[in-house]
Design goal:
This protein is mainly α. The chain has one domain. It contains 14 helices and six strands. A two-stranded antiparallel ribbon has the order 1-6. A two-stranded antiparallel sheet has the order 2-3.
């Protein structure tokens, strides 16, 4: 295996940038003393990779499977409804799916119906009627216009830079996880998940990192999923993980923020509060990883992220709401 010299293009800026946020927390508290008991109690409760055995997920499926996952992660953000609005969801093969699973079901349904959802030329020219048909179901998916713009962008960049297919990006990056993330963020503006806190840039790069992890899981770490340096990835900071971390008491909110989150008040994208929630999520996952390793478990940050996300599907971790922030990044 070729060992790369550590340069800005071969490392991820996520963890160093969130460290500067953690050092100045005002709205969020990080409670490391709760981590050992959380791992001891819940560490064996769920299979972090169980999600990829879901009927709405592809399993392998070659190059088209990789392209399908890329389209999935172009669209993978913000599914919760406005107050007093019906939650969006779809029926697929006799079952009803909402949220993320609704998105996956829509893309599987599109493939079943012969819609060329993995064709870059189709994505580049996609119109409002086409995307409304794609997401047809109960209620309306949020940020429809933004999703349309992101699909068009994806098609345009794939055609003009990557020969119409995301596998060419993987080939150029040598299936190195860190280089792949850098290439995606540099190529596709809608994946450029960055913010500012106290005048300093903060990098999260949630969906770009998630794409690498998703391909890895779909191919069980083989073929197109055989990435090097997967252990350099961080958490995929979203709105579900901090909900779980709050129930585990690993993070907590200052009273004013706690009331806003619990009352479903919107948190502005890029605000200090939002940056602190996401930074604390990334930081907590790193500390959880260290605790799992201390207890003899060979895990990385994506594994811990998936473990927390799967815990979040259980009712005991949904007692209090997640923070509401309208954004294309998670």
């Amino acid at each position: 295996m070729h060992v790369l010299n550590e340069t800005p293009s071969t490392t991820l800026p996520v963890l160093p940038s969130v460290t500067a946020v953690i050092e100045n927390l005002r709205w969020v508290s990080f409670n490391p003393q709760t981590i050992p008991s959380a791992v001891l109690k819940w560490g064996h409760e769920v299979d972090p990779h169980a999600a990829w055995h879901h009927p709405c997920h592809p399993k392998g499926e070659g190059q088209e499977g990789v392209q399908w996952i890329f389209v999935l992660d172009v669209l993978n953000h913000c599914f919760w409804p406005d107050p007093n609005h019906e939650a969006w969801g779809v029926e697929y093969r006799g079952r009803f799916y909402s949220g993320y699973w609704g998105l996956a079901a829509c893309l599987r349904r599109a493939v079943d119906e012969g819609v060329p959802i993995c064709d870059a030329g189709f994505l580049r020219k996609m119109d409002r009627e086409s995307i409304q048909h794609l997401f047809r179901g109960r209620g309306s998916i949020p940020l429809m216009e933004e999703r349309l713009n992101n699909l068009r962008e994806a098609g345009e960049v794939l055609l003009h830079r990557w020969g119409g297919h995301i596998i060419h990006l993987l080939e150029e990056s040598g299936q190195d996880a860190v280089r792949t993330v850098h290439q995606i963020v540099e190529s596709f503006p809608s994946f450029r998940d960055e913010s500012s806190y106290n005048g300093k840039k903060v990098y999260f790069w949630k969906r770009a990192q998630l794409f690498v992890s998703d391909v890895h899981q779909s191919f069980s770490g083989r073929d197109w999923g055989a990435f090097e340096r997967l252990d350099r990835l961080t958490a995929f900071a979203d709105y579900k993980l901090p909900q779980v971390l709050r129930e585990l008491k690993i993070i907590s909110y200052e009273k004013g923020l706690e009331e806003r989150v619990d009352n479903l008040s919107f948190i502005d994208a890029g605000s200090p509060e939002e940056n602190e929630i996401r930074a604390a999520t990334v930081w907590a996952v790193e500390q959880l990883k260290s605790e799992f390793q201390r207890q003899g478990r060979k895990v990385d940050s994506p594994w811990v992220d998936n473990w927390l996300w799967n815990l979040g599907q259980r009712s005991e971790f949904r007692k209090r709401p997640y923070h509401r922030c309208r954004t294309i990044y998670y």
